[in-house]
């Protein structure tokens, strides 16, 4: 059994305080010489991690170690009977060119780069590869290359010194033929920091937005959290082959090029927003992750949940609270609620794992961020600021736990957080049941929380749930402004003396990551949609109305009624409302959201029916809005040159929503016109998707002619064709595209575009009743698993909803999961995922 348990945590007997590395780069025979300054802290042998290393020499205090003084396995080097303090030297050889797992040192388009989180450093040299061992670094890179980068400050060409002790996972090295865009930032304590974004020659015209985002992030962290940058240089590098979005290595962030490079012609508004958010996220890690890191990988949410919360706050400030919050909640529900409802559910702080890379999940990131938001609500903005200040002061330079974090808030605010800690240890999305009573001038709300059983966890304890709420009169005026009620027990109630029954606006701002079980009359939801002072709940009321109708259309063939369609029209045409908000409010719940909601209501979801009903709803909306569509699009045009600012992005989003409705009516005429005049990728992609939806047979070819030399744009081309294929054609389209000359499974972006285009982008296609979608996914997961287990395991989560479906589909998905599990040579990553999904 390869399971690792939180309960087994023990500090290392011998630690490393300084790492001196010399790296002689060569594609097939890189030599890494390491000198580790080691100090004993307790009894026991020193067990260093190492994988795929050829050990050439090992010396202790300058003496060659005799074979009986150490032992070697495939994954460890153990120094027996080590003294109290010593210098350990090793020399190893590695082959970055053949490293297709993209973990450790590897090559991407001729450049050398690294990815060490979580456990990649052990593929570079023997070391205590765990986050609670923090060391300073001196790195000498030897190669005949123009640019050679590592962490910290450069003291001579290719020589880098990082004075800040850091764990191995934050180590980075980059070398190759790269070009930088330079800028600088003056910190609030008056130091100049050089900023560079390094890219492959030819891409230097697409770095401006990342640099601008970086400067704004640095200023924001100073202003809002009082956090100042601590080196004289901050480097960002764009890499084409990268498993994650980006990586916060100290002073040398490495990014998937998708999240750095942007120009109006090649990147969409969503790309710009992602770049802004991820640049901020990785920068914010410098304090929440790097200066204060995690004691062990079970504490991953300590840095990730907090840093996601910080990047969400930053994006709210940059782009507007309501639309950002709605987007973040949509994402949470789509990814985390789904995870929490299925076989992969796990606590924000898990208690065991087999492969840590499988735990970079929506639960740890996005639910982790929600916990920080709830904590802030519970202790108040001032209490939160005081707790954070204490955390930075008390734990700077340390590797910490969730207990350390919470203790700072207890100390700073006097609040007991014992019950709050349950949010970290209990998995599953709580359901809050709300029932109302109005009688003789008394309005009463009954509340009940139910936390579902999840794998390995049953009979959970009630958690503290901050419920922000307000009350409106039936005419829409607010009678009780926003208050916070803390639901801490299983059941509770609230009472008010009122002349008439009010309209309840509950869970304002989505104040807790819970599912509301609250049947509210349509008339009240329409009132909230029109009048709620809380913009999140205005949107939520519209969403509840839409979902209700879609669900009833699926189960009872119900029609789309005029009052709802009127409300949608009012929204669409409400020129006082923010276009971004209107776009969000007009968007229907996704097919996957409906599948999960039907499942929750004990209805077996039929993907084809869901697809058809959603189209029918769009058609009904389109017909209702028919006479307004052109004018509305006209009035939300963004003429002139493209500006990525949120205001214009909102207009483009609304315009794209309307174009989709127009396409339902005109078969693609308006979309063709929009495609032909588009001067930016946002408008172009919106029109492209509509044309594909409408069955246009020429647009894919002309798009390809225009963009075949642009890798990031071609990712969109691959994805859109699969996502917008008719359900019965989707697997065939995906399969055909895997034989396209530009399909390269070893590039994670390309692979993900195609696979997720099917599994996420085209659910009815993926769930084709003939089972070909399942077979296609399993085959490609097995194919990729041989070279890149991390990405293969990540994409296997498309199967995690398998028990929702009918018996035939279940049997076919189960058969594919079993087929994967029965394959010899399966990675630890993929096998852990499949085993958990089959349990
Ligand atoms: N690079 C990933 C992130 O920033 C893991 N740390 O979240
Ligand atoms: Zn992160």
From TrEMBL:
Domain Peptidase M1 alanyl aminopeptidase C-terminal: 522-839
Domain (Aminopeptidase N-like N-terminal): residue spans on this chain: 89-157
Chain ranges of the Peptidase M1 alanyl aminopeptidase Ig-like fold domain: 428-517
A Pfam entry, by short name: Peptidase_M1_N
Keyword Protease carried by entry: yes
EC number(s) per entry: 3.4.11.2
Reactions catalysed, as given in the entry: Release of an N-terminal amino acid, Xaa-|-Yaa- from a peptide, amide or arylamide. Xaa is preferably Ala, but may be most amino acids including Pro (slow action). When a terminal hydrophobic residue is followed by a prolyl residue, the two may be released as an intact Xaa-Pro dipeptide
UniProt GO molecular function: alanyl aminopeptidase activity; metallopeptidase activity; zinc ion binding
Domain Peptidase M1 membrane alanine aminopeptidase: from-to ranges: 209-420
Cofactor(s) listed: Zn(2+)
Biological process, per Gene Ontology: proteolysis
Family per similarity comment: Belongs to the peptidase M1 family.
Stated name of the protein: Aminopeptidase N
Highest classification ranks of the organism: Bacteria, Pseudomonadati, Pseudomonadota, Alphaproteobacteria, Rhodobacterales
């Amino acid at each position: 059994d390869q399971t690792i348990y939180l309960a087994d945590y023990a500090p290392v007997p011998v630690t490393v305080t300084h790492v001196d590395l010399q790296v002689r780069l060569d594609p097939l025979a890189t030599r890494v010489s390491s000198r580790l300054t080691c100090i004993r802290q307790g009894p026991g042998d020193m067990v260093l991690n190492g994988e795929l290393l050829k050990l050439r020499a090992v010396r202790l205090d300058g003496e060659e170690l005799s074979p009986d003084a150490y032992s070697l396995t495939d994954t460890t080097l153990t120094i027996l009977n080590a003294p109290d303090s010593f210098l350990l030297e090793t020399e190893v050889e590695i082959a970055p060119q053949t490293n297709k797992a993209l973990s450790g040192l590897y090559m991407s388009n001729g450049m050398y780069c690294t990815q060490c989180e979580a456990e990649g450093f052990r593929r570079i040299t023997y070391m205590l590869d765990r986050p609670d061992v923090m060391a300073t670094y001196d790195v000498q890179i030897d190669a005949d290359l123009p640019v050679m980068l590592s962490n910290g400050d450069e003291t001579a060409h290719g020589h880098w010194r990082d004075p800040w002790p850091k764990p191995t996972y934050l180590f980075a090295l980059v070398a190759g033929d790269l070009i930088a865009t330079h800028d600088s930032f003056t910190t609030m304590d008056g130091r100049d920091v050089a900023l560079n974004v390094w890219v492959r020659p030819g891409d230097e015209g697409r770095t401006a937005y990342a640099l601008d985002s970086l400067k704004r992030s640095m200023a924001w962290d100073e202003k809002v959290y009082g956090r100042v940058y601590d080196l004289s240089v901050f480097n960002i590098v764009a890499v084409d082959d990268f498993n994650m979005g980006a990586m916060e290595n100290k002073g040398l962030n490495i990014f998937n090029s998708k999240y750095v490079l942007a120009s109006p012609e090649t990147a969409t508004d969503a790309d710009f927003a992602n770049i802004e958010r991820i640049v901020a996220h990785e920068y914010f890690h410098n304090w929440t992750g790097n200066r204060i890191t995690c004691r062990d990988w079970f504490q991953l949410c300590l840095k990730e949940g907090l840093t996601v919360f910080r990047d969400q706050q930053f994006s709210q400030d940059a782009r507007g609270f309501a639309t950002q919050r709605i987007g973040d909640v949509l994402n949470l529900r789509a990814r985390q609620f789904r995870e929490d409802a299925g076989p992969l559910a796990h606590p924000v702080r898990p208690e065991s794992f087999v492969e840590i890379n499988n735990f970079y999940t929506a639960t740890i990131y996005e639910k982790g961020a929600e916990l920080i938001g709830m904590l802030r609500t519970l202790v108040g903005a001032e209490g939160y600021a005081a707790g954070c200040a204490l955390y930075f002061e008390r734990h700077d330079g340390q590797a910490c736990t969730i207990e350390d974090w919470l203790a700072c808030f207890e100390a700073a605010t006097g609040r007991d957080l014992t019950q709050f800690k349950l949010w970290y240890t209990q998995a599953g999305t709580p359901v809050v049941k709300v029932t109302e009573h109005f009688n003789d001038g008394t309005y009463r709300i009954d509340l009940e929380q139910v936390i579902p059983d999840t794998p390995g966890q049953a009979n959970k304890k009630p958690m503290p749930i901050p419920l922000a709420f307000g009350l409106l009169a039936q005419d829409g005026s607010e009678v009780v402004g926003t208050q916070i009620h803390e639901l801490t027990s299983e059941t509770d109630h609230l009472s008010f003396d009122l002349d008439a029954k009010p309209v309840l606006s509950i869970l304002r701002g989505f104040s807790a990551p819970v599912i509301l079980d609250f049947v509210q009359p349509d008339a009240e939801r329409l009132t909230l949609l029109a009048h709620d002072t809380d913009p999140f709940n205005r949107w939520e009321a519209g969403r509840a109305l839409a979902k209700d109708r879609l669900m009833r259309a699926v189960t009872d063939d119900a029609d789309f009624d005029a009052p709802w369609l009127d409300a949608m029209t009012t929204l669409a045409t409400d020129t006082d409302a923010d276009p971004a908000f209107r776009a969000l409010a007009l968007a229907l719940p996704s097919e996957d959201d409906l599948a999960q909601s039907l499942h929750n209501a004990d209805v077996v979801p039929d993907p084809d029916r869901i697809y058809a009903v959603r189209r029918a709803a769009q058609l009904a909306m389109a017909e209702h809005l028919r006479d307004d569509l052109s004018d509305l699009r006209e009035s939300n045009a963004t003429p002139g040159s493209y500006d990525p600012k949120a205001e214009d992005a909102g207009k483009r989003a609304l315009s794209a929503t309307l174009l989709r409705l127009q396409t339902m009516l005109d078969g693609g005429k308006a979309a063709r016109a929009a495609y032909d005049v588009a001067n930016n990728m946002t408008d172009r992609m919106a029109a492209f998707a509509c044309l594909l939806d409408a069955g246009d047979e020429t647009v894919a070819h002309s798009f390809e002619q225009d963009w075949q030399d642009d890798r990031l744009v071609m990712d969109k081309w691959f994805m859109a064709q699969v996502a917008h294929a008719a359900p019965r054609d989707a697997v065939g389209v995906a399969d055909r595209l895997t034989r396209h000359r530009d399909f390269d499974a070893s590039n994670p972006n390309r692979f993900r575009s195609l696979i997720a285009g099917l599994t996420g982008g085209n659910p009815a296609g993926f769930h084709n009743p003939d089972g070909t979608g399942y077979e296609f996914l399993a085959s490609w997961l097995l194919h990729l698993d041989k070279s890149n287990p991390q990405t293969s395991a990540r994409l296997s989560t498309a199967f995690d909803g398998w028990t929702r479906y009918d018996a035939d589909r279940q049997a076919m998905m189960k058969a594919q999961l079993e087929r994967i599990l029965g394959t010899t040579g399966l990675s630890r990553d993929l096998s852990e995922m499949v085993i958990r999904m089959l349990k």
